[in-house]
Amino acid sequence: MKLFDVYPINDITITRGQGSWVWDDKDNKYLDFYGGHAVISIGHTHPHYVHRLTEQLNHIGFYSNSIRIPQQQQLADLLGKATGLDDYQLFLCNSGAEANENAMKLASFHTGRSKIIAFSKSFHGRTSLAVAATDTPSIVAPVNKTDNVVFLEFNNAATLVEYFQKHGDQIAGVIIEGIQGVGGINLASDEFLQAIRILCDQYGAIFIADSVQCGYGRTGKFFSHDFSGVKADIYSMAKGMGNGFPIGGIIIAPHIAPKYGMLGTTFGGNHLACAAAIAVLEVMQSESLMDNASSMGEYLQAHLSQIPHIHNVRGRGLMIGFEPAEPFGDMRKRLLNECRIFTGEAKPNTIRLLPALNIGKDEADVLLDAIRKIVA
Ligand code: PLP
Question: What is the distance in A from the centroid of ligand 1 to the CA of 268?
């Protein structure tokens, strides 16, 4: 059987990893400034993570949501502390798309309305409603197209106000990434997020903070939306949550009431997934990883900004984008092939840095030196 050929892959076979380093089958060593799409949050094979998962697997790996799974409450308690949202409620699933799908569905159930507002350059995943709310027409199948999702301009509060004034009674929710990832590391302005909060309150709509890529401590705060000083009604999470183990979830404000059968999943919140997520939060806390993300992010941005031919350095914490000048349009390829450093990209020409939150100064310097060498 052939693999369904949907990924344009690099011809590299990674066989092991440790911290921010990975090795291929020929024992070449690579620096990982990508984390497989912002997934590796506490580093590859972190000993505490390996211990927690192994221990759990030796007891029981999976049982469904038809019985008590105490690890779910343990995770909810840790999340309540880490986010400061201990009065919110946790629903667990398996991926970012599924988290957003459930968030938008819940907004619709709660309000009895059917319109979702999303923004230009957004990416919310590939399941039906998540992809309908994603501003990339080429990945939206005809069956996913719906008039229920309306796209407005990112960071344009005036258009949003106008839309709410005309259609406020039909809007179930507004979904927005605090920092657009796939869209190119674009920061939602504090004023825009504050305007969303005010409008959702005024018209009874649900504010959904897609934190799948920009959340979970990556920016130095637990949710990047926190910088605006307002709270969302639902936060979606995945990626860094399990450090590679598939787990996603939504954190739901207390005024949104659950009902049996309203949401559900076979795999979501299983023992092993919870063990992974618990290990991640324990390491984030014991190693002060949000502080590290914040200071290493500042260090990287400050030094990147001083490198000639590197433009438009932006981001927060360890979610950074920059654009190499035209003659260095192949920089990402050169970083990988010549310097053995993985980075991410956003079309047309942004390099995205999404390393583990425990990246050190030495590793940052390896990347900075490689970029300096290329532009020299
Ligand atoms: N939301 C955002 C902001 C993302 O960046 C992604 C994935 O890149 C998703 C949702 C979808 O997550 P997943 O691939 O886990 O379904």
Answer: 16
